Amino acid sequence: MRKRFYIFFVARDEAGQLRKISIPVQYLYVLLAGLAIGALCLTGIASSYARMLNKIATTTSSAPSRLSSRIAIRVWSRSLRNATFR
């Protein structure tokens, strides 16, 4: 069975002969699979980071309303406590 290679031409040497690199096809398949897995990992990391940024943005934008509701609950509980014990 004949082995298949991809041949990359690099440059000519001083004598004028063409230098070339031959890479077996199986190595290129492994390289492509590694690149695909790496791309999927980077996509997952980027989407996780984007979700985290979105969560932080919504949390900080809702912080003033939560603070005002906490103050309202404290005032209500104090008034309830004062009304109960009087």
Overview in brief:
The chain has one helix at 25-85; strands at 5-12, 18-24. It is an alpha+beta fold and 86 residues long. The protein has one domain.
Written overview of the protein:
The chain has one domain (5-85). Helix content is 71%, strand content 17%. The chain has one helix and two strands, in the order E-E-H. The protein has one helix at 25-85, and strands at residues 5-12, 18-24. Strand 1 and strand 2 (18-24) form a beta hairpin. It is rod-shaped, with a radius of gyration of 33 Å. The N and C termini lie far apart (99 Å).
Give me some keywords for this one.
single chain, 86 residues, alpha+beta, two-stranded antiparallel ribbon, 1 helix
Mean pLDDT rating: 82
- Count of DSSP strands: 2
Report the major sheet.
2 strands, antiparallel
Number of H/I helices: 1
Class per helix and strand makeup: alpha+beta
Quaternary assembly: single chain
Order of helices and strands: EEH
Residues in helix, %: over 70%
Strand percentage: 15-25%
Low-pLDDT regions: none
Strand order of the largest sheet: 1-2
What is the first-to-last residue Cα distance? 99 Å
Number of domains: 1
